[in-house]
Each structure stands twice: as C-alpha cells, then as structure tokens.
Write a structure and sequence with these properties.
The protein is of the alpha/beta class. It is 43% helix and 17% strand. It contains ten helices and eight strands. Helix 4 crosses helix 8 and helix 9 runs parallel beside helix 10. It is globular. The termini are far apart.
C-alpha cells in the first residue's frame, strides 16, 4: 500500500481508502513504509474527499479536520523514519488539535520547556516526554496512533456494556467498551478504533462523573462506542445518558482487578 511512480513521474496511490473507516489503516501502512510522498498524495486525492463525505458534515471537529490530523500523525512517523531530526511544537499542535475533547483547552507547546524539543527524539519518545509535562487527552490520542503505527497498540483488561442511544426519532443499542492502556490516569477516546467519533460537553461531563462515581480509578482507560446492528463506530454522540453505562463498565473493570 505504497505510492507508485507513474509514467509521467507523478505519484499514483496503489490503494485509496474505500470508506472513511479505512482512512487510518491506509495512512498507517504508508507511515510504516516511511512513504512521505504517498501520504502527501493521499491528502491531495479527490478519492479521500469522497470517502470523508460519507460522514456527517455537522460534526465538530469536522471529519476532514480529523482526517488531516490522522495524516499529520502518520507524517510525523514517516518523516522521522526517512530523515530523523528534531520535531517542533507546531508539528505536534497541528497533529493534536483535532483530538481535543469538549471542556478542554487546546494543547500548546508553549507550556513545555524549549529543551524538550531541542533533541532529535523519535516521535513516540517526544510525545511521552510531553505527556509527562502536560497529560492532555489530545497528546494521549497522538501517542496511541503512534503506537498503532509501531504495532504496539495492545489493550489490557477490557469491559463492555450495551447502552441505548437516541438516533433521530428512534433509539438504537450501542456497545460501550473500555480498555486499559499505558498512559496517564483518565478516561480517553479510543482513537485507534473510533478515529472520527466526536461528542459534546454533556457527554464528556457524564463520562468524567461516571469515573468519579467509580472512585476515580487510577488506570489509563480508552472508551469506544459501536452500533450493535452495523458494528460500525458511532460518529457523533451527545447528552448525559451514557453516564450509567460508563459507571457500570468502570465497575466491571475494577472487579477484574480484585484478587480472587
């Protein structure tokens, strides 16, 4: 899945995403191959716009903003693999901005000492250092995507619960899943499984309240939400109704930790 050089000297993508769900898998494989040119060509391709248009246009951040962020994370890995060098704060900010959850200010490199960016650290090591200074959810998202490129995105304990979701005038069941991952304490979107899922402030508040009800578990957790019928990721969700399901899921994880 690399970019091939065409007869006229221009790059032609050997494969383009057939659906929005495939965008990250295509970008990930190009990053693994260090194919910076392929990523640039993918970003400019009309086929990419067509598959992004499958997603609801009223999401915030928009599907295209999330797509650009996914490609920027892949670009960090691919560029470093081709020519290692220092990565500036602006590059991390551009990659992270679209993963800022509601109720959070956007992450800024100005919060970090200049010397952190001075060395030519690999992207993963740099993001780990940044998280130690500011454990921001958007940095956690970037780290998880970099782990997926490296093939090290391995979940720990997991729990899931079926929750009712309002969809138009009807209700539909969805599966809320939680997994444990390395990282700072908190409850973060599983961006590897749900790269286009966005939610509102009421939903974010309900998640964090559920974590408090469960006793503020110390682990680093990722949440995902999939429709039961189609098994596709939910793309937009709002309101506080997820709170009870999230609390039940957190309790399930805590029960797994107890010695038997």
């Amino acid at each position: 899945m690399t970019a091939e050089l065409g007869d006229q000297g221009s790059f032609e993508l050997a494969r383009v995403p057939g659906s929005a769900a495939e965008i990250w898998s295509v970008a990930r494989e190009l990053a693994r191959a260090g194919d910076v040119d392929g990523l640039s060509e993918l970003e400019r391709s009309s086929e990419l716009v067509d598959v992004v248009d499958e997603l609801p246009a009223n999401l915030n951040p928009s599907p295209m903003m999330r797509t650009e962020a996914l490609l920027r994370v892949a670009g960090l890995a691919a560029s470093y693999g081709r020519a290692p060098g220092s990565i500036g704060p602006a590059a991390i900010e551009r990659a992270a901005d679209a993963f800022t959850p509601p109720n959070w200010a956007q992450w800024s490199g100005r919060q970090v000492p200049d010397e952190v960016f001075a060395t030519a650290s690999p992207p993963m090591q740099l993001v780990d250092d940044l998280i130690r200074f500011t454990p921001h959810p958007s940095l956690v998202a970037v780290r998880d995507l970099l782990c997926d490129i490296d093939g090290t995105y391995e979940p720990g304990r997991a729990a899931s619960v079926v929750v009712p979701i309002r969809r138009g005038v009807d209700g539909e069941a969805a599966t809320l899943s939680l997994i444990e991952r390395p990282g700072p304490p908190g409850l973060f979107l599983d961006v590897v499984r749900c790269p286009f899922l966005v939610w509102d402030e009421a939903f974010e508040t309900a998640l964090q309240n559920a974590r408090r009800v469960a006793g503020n578990p110390s682990g680093s957790l990722r949440w995902s939400l999939f429709w039961r019928t189609s098994q596709r990721s939910v793309t937009g969700i709002g309101g506080p109704s997820i709170g009870l399901g999230a609390a039940v899921c957190l309790r399930q994880l805590q029960a797994q930790r107890r010695p038997r």
